[in-house]
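lol forgot to send this yesterday, sorry. struct tokens for the thing we talked abt
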């Protein structure tokens, strides 16, 4: 697809879907229509907005804010390995280890298995006490 000046471009909802940021094109269109996506710093709200190679996209995806530079336009929605070649992640999300190092309060307060007892554990406790239910 090209615009009036003949520059190649692609609808942003289709590009987001082909780059595998969202599972369906309708979800991509909904994200764009929510007004939470920016193209080169400008907030957009129309799924028909054309993106071109070199554009920078900023949008929330789960708990992260993604900053993506469009490198190529998508011809089809191919496998993930092809989709990763379409963009350059300028601010990749932090790994779990990095998040825990930065925010130690995010670590669990209890050890695994120290929560509410299971039915089996409760029966074993009752048997030790000599109680029957």
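and heres what i got for the seq, position by position
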């Amino acid at each position: 697809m090209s615009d009036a000046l003949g520059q190649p471009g692609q609808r942003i909802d289709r590009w987001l879907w082909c780059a595998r940021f969202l599972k369906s094109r309708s979800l991509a269109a909904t994200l764009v229509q929510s007004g939470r996506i920016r193209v080169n710093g400008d907030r957009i709200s129309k799924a028909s907005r054309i993106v071109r190679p070199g554009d920078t996209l900023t949008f929330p995806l789960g708990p992260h804010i993604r900053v993506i530079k469009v490198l190529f336009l998508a011809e089809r929605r191919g496998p993930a390995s092809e989709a990763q070649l379409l963009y350059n992640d300028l601010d990749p999300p932090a790994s779990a280890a990095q998040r825990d190092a930065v925010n130690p309060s995010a670590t669990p307060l209890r050890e695994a298995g120290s929560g509410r007892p299971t039915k089996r554990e409760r029966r074993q406790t009752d048997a030790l006490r000599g109680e029957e239910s």
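The longest strand covers residues 64-70. anyway ping me if u want another try
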